[in-house]
Amino acid sequence: MKKPSCNPFGALGRAALALAFAATLLPVPAFAEPDSAADPAGTGSSASVGTLQPLGRMVETERGPVFSLNDPSLLNPASGANALAALPDSYDLRTAGAGGASLSTSVKDQYPFGDCWSFGALSSLESNLLVTDHATGAPSSPDLAERHLAWFAYNGADDSADDSRWAGGDTFLNTTGRSDYDAGGARNLSAATLMRWYGAVDEQKAPYINDASMGAPDAALRNQSDVHVQNVMFLPEPNVYTWQEHEGGSPTLEHRRDPSAVDAIKTCLMENGVVDVSFYADNAITNNMTGRGTWNPATSAYFYSKTADNAEMLANHEVSIIGWDDSFPKEKFSTQPEGDGAWIVKNSWGSGTSGHQDGCFYLSYYDTSFSNPTSYQAEQATYDADGTDHAYDGIYQYDGVGVGETGFSNTQRIQFANVFEARGSETVQAVSVFLPTACSQVDITVYRNPTGLTDGGTLNPQSGTLKWHTTLTGANAGYTTIDLGSDAFPVIAGDTFSVVASAQEPNGNYLMLAEVDDASQEYAAIDCAAGQTYYTEGTSDWHDMARENLFEDGAGYTAGNALLKAYTTETPAGPDTPIAILHTNDVHCGVDQTFDEDGTATSIGYAGVSQALKDAEAAYGADNVTLVDAGDAVQGKPLGTLSQGADLVDIMNQVGYDLAIPGNHEFDYGMDQLRRLVDRSNATYLSCNFDNLETGATEFSPYTIETYGNVRVAYVGISTPESLTKSNPAHFKDASGTDVYGFCEDETGQMLYDRVQQTVDEAHANGADYVVALGHLGQSGVAARWRSDTVIANTTGIDVFIDGHSHEQYEQRVANKAGRDVLLAQTGTQLQTYGEVIIHPTTGKIETRLVKPPVAQDPDTAAFIKDIEDRLSKTLDKVVARTEVKLVAVESDTQHSWAVRMRETNLGDLAADAVRASLGADIGFMNGGGIRSDVAVGDITYGDAIAVLPFGNTLCKVEATGQTIVDALEMGARLYPEPNGGLLQTSGLTYEIRSDIPSPVKLDEKGVFVGIEGARRVQNVRVGGEPIDLGKTYTVSSITYLLQDSGDGFSMFKDAKVLVSEQGLDYEALISFIKDDLSGVIRADSIYADENGTGRILVKTGAAVEPEPIPQPQPTPNATEGGATPKPLARTGDTAAPTAAATSALALSALTCAAIATRAVRRRRRTAAETL
To answer: Which regions span the lipid bilayer (predicted)?
Structure first.
C-alpha cells in the first residue's frame, strides 16, 4: 500500500532550496530610537550599542515550516561532552526494559495525513515516560494523542483573559489551504506547543481516525495536559552544513560529518528514550520500490547520500530512533555508505508497512538528510490518564511559538524579562528558557514584587526582592527547566514576580531570547501586550517591549515576548502549611534602605522587612508567621541616641515584631530605660540567662511557646554574657558597685550551657514540637565558651539557632551534643540581609536562608520612618564642620567589618585626639567599639558626629602609671587579628603589636582583666615619642565607660586617681576639637589625610627594634602642673550618665521623645500559660 508523504506539497527543487536557505542571510535591522510619546524624558532610549546578527529563520520545506539556523554547527559545540564513556555496540529500546520489556511504544499509523511530526514528538515523550519509570504501572504503555498536538499547534489562540496562563495570543498559522493535519510541521511546532501545556493528552480523549473526515478535537481539550513536557533537547547534528564564501563567486553549501554527535544521540536515547528525527524519505521507501539507490526492501535499509542541500530543509519526514546496530553491514544498503552501522527506526506508517520489519527499518549512520534529532522529556511525575499528580501545578508564560519566525543574536549584552502577576496562593518553584543554540552561558534571576522605575518611568524588573539567581551552560539547544529547590518562594494573588535572563553564545554574541514576527512571513501569530516583556541592551535602563519595540519602525521585524516561563505549585493550606520565621539582628538603628555609588541596594531597611512580613503572612497565613529580632536594634545612630531607643521601638512596632531579645547594646541607656523600652514594645522580650542576682529570677521570660495550628514552637532567648563588659558595666551594679545582674557567666561556659539546657528541656516538657533559640552570642571575636556554635555543641534539643552580636552573615549546620545537626543563621548588621526559617510540619524539614537586597519596600513603614527622621532633621542636619578626607570606621567591603576594631584609622586618631585635647592629658584613648560610623568627604553635621560616637559617653581624666597603661594596651590587643571593640585608638602614644606572640591577658569569668601571664605582645610603647616609663604617672583622658566603669573589661583603671569626671559628651568633644583646634576643617594635607592613620599602632612579627625617639604629629595641649588645663566644656552634672547625657543632647537639640499616638499592635497568639 502506498504511504502518504509527510506533507503533500510539491517537492521543492534543489535551486529553490538553495535560494530559501540563502535567504536566511538576513539584512541587519536597526534598533528602535527613543519614542518621545512612550518616553517623554528621553531616557528610555534603546539606542544600539551593539549589532544584531541574523541567527536563523523559519523556512518552508516538504514537511512544513522549519526554523533553520544559518549555522547549524551552533547546535554542536558540545556534542560529545555528555556522551557515555562506553556505549554498547547495539541497543534496542524494544527489549531494553526490565525482563526484556519494551521501552518504546507500539508502531502507529498517520494515514492519511501529513502529521508525522506529531507522531515523532509523542513517540519520544511516551518512551521517556517508560525509561524514567513515570508511566502508570507496567506492563501498561502510554498512548498519547497525536491528533490533539497536530490540531492545537495551529489553533493555539485562546480567548482567555489570563494571557499569562496559556500565552493565548500566540499560535502557528496554517496558510496552505489544507487541513491542519496536512499543513506539516517540525520540532519548532511540537516543542513550543507541548511546552505551553497544550497537551499531551491520552489517546482516548482525542482518538486518531485514519480517515480524511477526521475533524477538530473538542476545543475544551486545548489547555488540557495529562503529562507535561518539561524539557526538549535539540541534540547535536551528525550532518553539519555551512555556507562558504568564495571571492568573486557565489557561496556554496559544504557538508561535514560530526561523529561525536552520533554518540551524543545514543547516550540521550539510553538515558531519556526515543529520539525524534527527520530525514528525506523518497518515493522508493514510501512506495517500497527498488532501483533508486536509497531503499533496500529486502533488508529494510535506507540510505540517502546526496549532500547538495541542507539536511533539515531537505528532510520531509519525521520518525523515531529506537536503537542502533554498529555492525549493521554497509552492504545491506542499496548504495553502500562509507561505513557500517545503522539506526533502528520506528516509522508511523503502520506495523504492516511493506518492506519494513514490524513497522521499523534501518537508517544508515551516514545518511546525509538525517537532521533535527530531538528528545522530549516529561515532568518528574507519574503519568496517569485518569489524572496525573503533576510536578508543577501552574504555568506562567507569554511565549507560545518559540522564536516565532526569525532569530537574532547581538554583539552587545542584552537582557530580557517577563513580569507575571500571581493568580492565587502559590509557590514559584521553577523557570524555563528556550535556547536556539548549544553551549550558551545563561544567567537567570527571579525577583518578587518588582516595583522600581527607570528614569524614563518604565518598570524595572530587576527591582523588588531578589529571590533566586543562577548561571548555567545549556549543553544543548532547546527548552530547559530549572527548579528553584529550597529557594522556591510563595506568592499570593496580586503579587508580581519577574524572570530576568541573558544568554551568551560561545562566540561571544548574546542571544535574542524573544519571539520575532517577520513581516515577510506568515508562519506564526505573535501577541505582546504592555507590562509583559521588558528588555535592556547594554545599560540598566529597561524598556517595555510593547511600547518601545526592540526594532525600529520599518525594519520588517517586531519583537514579541521573552522566551521565559515560570512554574508554580499550590501552597498547601491548613495545619500542614509551613511555618515561617523572619529574623533580624544587630540593626543598630540602620532603619533605611541604603545604596552604593552605582545605585545598587546594599541594605534592606525596615520598610523592606515590613513588606517581607506582609508577603509571608499573605502566603502562609498571618497565624503561621512570626517576626523576631536577635538584639542590638535600638542603639548605634543619632536616631537611637537622641530618643534613647524609643523611636526605634516605635518603628519596630510599626513593622510588626512579635519577639525580641536584649543584645548587649539594649542595656546602653541603663536598666530603667530598658524597662521603659520593653514596656513600649509590642514584642515580647525573652532571655533565659539574664538574672536579677538579688531576686534570683530572670528579668525576662526565659521562653515562650507559639502555636501554629496544631504545631507548637518554643522560642528561647539567650543573651551574651559579654554584656557585662560590652555595655556599660555600671548598669549592672548598684550604687555601692556590687553586681546585681548576671548572665550565667563563668570561666568554662558551663553555667550558660546548663541554663540553656534547662530552659530547652522545660519547653519540650510543656509541649513544644520545635525549639528555636534566639541568641545574641555570635562567633568572630567572641570568647570561645560563649559562642553560639559552642552553646549548640554543649546542648541538645535546639532545632534552629537564630544568632546575632558578631555582625556576621552565615548559614551553618552545627552538631549538637548528641551529634544532631542544628541550623544556625545570622544576618550581619544594619539589615544587610534578613533571614527566613521555614519549618515544614508534615515532613519535619527545616530550611534557612538569608535574603539579600534589593527587596520591595512597604510604603506605610517608609512613610512612618520618614516622619520620625524629618522631626529630628532640624538638629541632625545642622552643619558644624567640614572634611576634605574620608574618615574611616568601617572597612570598604560588603560585610560591614569594623576597621577601628582591628587597626588604626584616621577616624580613630581623630577621636582619640579629641578626647585628649578636650581635657588636656598626656594620653588619649578611644575604644574602637565606641566609633560607629564613617564620615564622608564634605560637610559634617551634628548628626554625623553623633553617628560616629552614638553612645553619648561622658569624658573623664585619671592619673595612671606606665604599667597600668601598657596593661590596658595588652587588653585591647588581646584578640588581634580578630576584631575587638576594646582595641585602643590612641593620642600622644604609639605602640606595636607582635602578632606572633599569643596574648598573655588573663580574664575572669565575666571577661574582665585580672592580669598578665607570659610574654607581652604589646611592645615599643612610646609617650610623646619617648619610651614609656612603667613607674611614672601619666594623665589619661577617655570616656568614663573605660576609665571608671571597667567597660570592655578594662579593670586596670578602677583604682586610678580621678582628676576630672563627667566632663561633657564624647561627640561634643569631637565637634569642639574640629572647630577649635582644626579651624572647622579636616584638610587633605593634615595628619588625618591617610585613612590608615599616622603609624600610632603598628603590627609586627619578630623582635621589636627600638627606634630613636621621633616626635609624633599629634595635637599637644598646653601642659600645666598636675596635668593640663581642660578646655571649657559644660559638665552634665548628672551621676547617672550616659543615660542622662543623651537627655542632655535632647535638651541641646530642643527635642523631646513624645509617644507616637498611633501604635501598631500585633496580635498575640500566646496565652499567659504559654509565656513562661
So the answer is: 1136-1157
